[in-house]
Design goal:
The protein is mainly alpha-helical and 247 residues long. It is built from twelve helices and no strands. Helix 5 crosses helix 6, helix 6 packs antiparallel against helix 7 and helix 7 packs across helix 9. The chain starts with a helix and ends with a helix.
Length: 247
């Protein structure tokens, strides 16, 4: 299905329902909490090198000129290095986070449909798929910057379509990165308030793991990602898309 047909298809679907998505997400999370925990650990592992690279200028400055850090101000060269590394850091982290989140959503679909295949956590790291994810990360980074520049208010607007991008990466991979972004805005704009509410509430509930000596949040954090699967399932669908694509 091309973008035009997909857009028309999304617009003909019923509006998303907050309660339905949230309740089913809780039930599905009971089946995928372990996979979510593994995804979270893998995310920490793959983004750790980017944190190390980001702090290299600070480490180098601390070794070569320890007194400079005591004044609380970075020398110009160190500030320039950090300014250059920060976008690289953000795009790199976003790329790997997108790939892992999309893999998690694919696992959610398999568990929901009781497709007992092996969990493939690195699906988007293989067969050249990471290139498309990288381009999506560039778009995501650009949208985030635009949201911040819009007096911060734009962040609340763009967070809805940005939250949907991993689902289109996982389930509409035939689209180009730009088409995925446009489709995310189509679905997001149609159901903005419902999606915003589900994202905020599910993220809040996911943080309740802090009650369990803070360690529990490692097991509940990915709950906030599960509703995106149902947003795509209800707002776009799987079987319907295949049928239209065959015509």
């Amino acid at each position: 299905m091309n973008l035009e047909n997909l857009t028309q298809h999304i617009n003909t679907k019923p509006d998303l329902e907050f309660g339905t998505i949230f309740s089913r997400s809780i039930e599905l999370f009971k089946k995928v909490w372990l996979q979510g925990f593994i995804i979270l650990l893998l995310t920490f592992v793959v983004i750790l090198p980017f944190y190390i690279v980001l702090y290299i200028p600070m480490f180098a400055l601390g070794i070569t000129d320890p007194v400079a850090l005591q004044h609380g101000e970075l020398p110009p060269m160190a500030a320039i290095a950090l300014a250059i590394l920060m976008p690289v850091f953000s795009i790199g982290v976003t790329t790997f986070a997108l790939a892992l989140n999309a893999s998690f959503l694919k696992i959610c679909k398999e568990k929901d449909l009781e497709d007992f295949t092996s969990d493939d956590y690195f699906y988007y790291f293989k067969e050249g798929r990471l290139g498309k994810v990288f381009i999506l990360a560039l778009y995501t980074f650009g949208l985030s910057i635009l949201g911040v520049l819009a007096c911060g208010v734009g962040v609340f607007y763009v967070m809805v379509p940005i939250s949907l991008i991993p689902a289109f990466l996982a389930f509409s991979n035939h689209l180009s990165p730009l088409e995925m972004v446009k489709a995310s805005f189509t679905l997001g704009n149609k159901n903005w308030l419902v999606i915003f509410g589900v994202v905020i509430i599910s993220a809040f509930v996911a943080q309740l793991g802090f009650i369990l000596c803070c360690v529990g949040v490692l097991f509940t954090a990915m709950l906030g990602k599960v509703p995106v699967y149902y947003m795509y399932k209800d707002g776009v669908g799987f079987g319907e898309v295949k049928e239209i694509s065959n015509h």
